Amino acid sequence: MPMAVATQVRVDAERNRAAIISGAITLLGNSPDASMQQIAQAAGVNRATLYRHFTNREQLVTALHEEALADAEALSGQLPTEGPVVPALRSYLDDAVTIGERYRFILMYRRTDPRMFEAEAKATVPVIRAIKRGQRQDEIDPRLDPVFLAAQVTLLVAGVVGLVERGAMTLDDARAQAQLTFGKTVAPSR
């Protein structure tokens, strides 16, 4: 195959994969039980193309989870290494809720792959560092375990998404409650 043709095939394959991921995120966020055929239609590809990239639903869900973790890791990597920590973590929480809402299907999906647990832990390392820095700067209660507190931020995001998903709260109200809870949790006791 000539180099130009091979390059075009690769570009087409990457574009199709991106379209499948994007279509699946949107469709499964609204219809978690959507079929592979419906996912292909949402992505604008045929079923054969979908199955060339993902031989089954589980592979697709794993790819979606990896995509969500990559976005979470990119977000946590943007946490500043200087300056006040609590406002930065509040902003992080707000942006994490936005990511959680985008990937709500993944947050609601049963996740048991140990490789994903490792990736989730890696994505929280910058958050843990920021919490430790906030404790040194007396912004965050030093009695709180940084790993536990980082996990609580993740649970706040999942809580917001779950409440919105089942119609118990609006996104804005749930987001505000997460911010309030976070503020009450991290404040140093005097």
Write up this protein:
With 190 residues, the protein is mainly α. The protein has two domains: 1-55, Arc Repressor Mutant, subunit A (Orthogonal Bundle), CATH 1.10.10; 57-190, Tetracycline Repressor, domain 2 (Orthogonal Bundle), CATH 1.10.357. 76% of the residues lie in helices and 0% in strands. The protein is built from nine helices and no strands. The protein has helices spanning 3-30, 36-43, 47-53, 57-76, 86-102, 104-108, 114-136, 146-165, 171-186. Helix 4 packs antiparallel against helix 5 (86-102) and helix 8 (146-165) packs antiparallel against helix 9. The chain is elongated and about 60 Å long. 27% of the residues are buried. It comes from Gordonia rhizosphera NBRC 16068.
Summary tags:
190 residues, mainly alpha, Arc Repressor Mutant, subunit A, elongated, transcription, transcription cis-regulatory region binding
Layout: helices, strands, pairs:
Blueprint lengths: L2 H28 L5 H8 L3 H7 L3 H20 L9 H17 L1 H5 L5 H23 L9 H20 L5 H16 L4
Helix pairs in contact: 1-2, 4-5, 4-7, 5-8, 5-9, 7-8, 8-9
Helix content: over 70%
The tally of beta strands, per DSSP, is 0
Query: For this structure, what is the CATH class of the largest domain?
Result: Mainly Alpha
Indicate the overall shape: elongated
Q: Give the percentage of residues in beta strands.
A: under 5%
Described by its quaternary structure, the protein is single chain
Give the ordered list of helices and strands: HHHHHHHHH
Using only C-alpha atoms, the radius of gyration works out to: 19 Å
CATH superfamily of the largest domain, by name, is Tetracycline Repressor, domain 2
Count of alpha/pi helices: 9
Distance between the termini: 71 Å
Largest beta sheet, briefly?
A: none
Tally of domains? 2
CATH topology of the largest domain: Tetracycline Repressor, domain 2
Low-confidence stretches: none
- Average pLDDT value? 89
How does the helix and strand content classify structurally?
Answer: mainly alpha
